[in-house]
Amino acid sequence: MSEKPLFIPLKTEFYEQFENGTKTDELREYGKRWNEKTCRVGRAVTISKGYGKQNRLYGVVSSFSRYHGSWFNSPHKEAIKKCYGTLDIKIAVISIRLRKVEQ
After folding, report:
1. By 3-state DSSP, what share of the chain in percent is helix, strand and coil, each rounded to 5?
2. Which residues, including other chains, have CB under 8 Å from residue 74's CB and lie 6 or more apart?
3. Segments making up each domain of the chain, as ranges
4. What pairing do the DSSP bridges indicate for beta strands 6-10 and 25-29?
5. Is 57 within 8 Å of 24 (Cβ atoms)?
6. Closest CA to 98 of 41, 44, 27
7. Which stretches does DSSP call E strand in the chain?
8. How far apart are CA 61 and CA 3, in angstroms?
9. Of 21, 28, 2, whose CA–CA distance to 97 is shortest?
10. How many Cα atoms sit within 13 Å of 22 on the Cβ side?
11. What are the CB-based long-range contacts (under 8 Å, 24+) for 80-83?
């Protein structure tokens, strides 16, 4: 049985950053859903604009790291604090290499 792709729904602004190549890493709270096992290097990824089926990007996990929330630089720290309410958490950094889609 083959492994299902890792599904990552994103807000429009972050989806568009992946789409235009300015974003290659997704940060999530480290835990049961986002860890070394579930985000193993080589696993297929489906990035979705929200939960709809119309805007999708496809790729593969190219690397995975875990850091304490206080480790990041200012823009990331602000985003982590805004999203999770604290920097005192572990953050999964999921690097994704998108596949080229032929037109």
Report:
1. 20, 35, 40
2. none
3. 6-65
4. unpaired
5. no
6. 44
7. 6-10, 25-29, 44-49, 56-68, 90-98
8. 13
9. 21
10. 6
11. 80/27
How far does Cα 65 stand from its chain's mean position?
A: 11
Where does residue 21 fall: left (phi above 0), alpha (psi -120 to 50 degrees), or beta otherwise? left
Task: Write down the pTM of the prediction.
Answer: 0.90
CA distance linking residue 88 with residue 70, whole number of Å:
7
Q: 83, 90, 5, 93: which is closest to 48 by C-alpha?
A: 5
> What residue type is assigned to position 67 of the chain?
Y
Q: Which residue has the tokens 């119309």?
A: 54
SS (H, E, C) 77-91: HHHHHHHHCCCCCEE
- The pLDDT tens digits of the residues spanning 36-93 come to 999 999 999 999 999 988 899 999 999 999 999 999 998 899 999 999 999 999 999 9
Owner of token pair 């690397």: 63
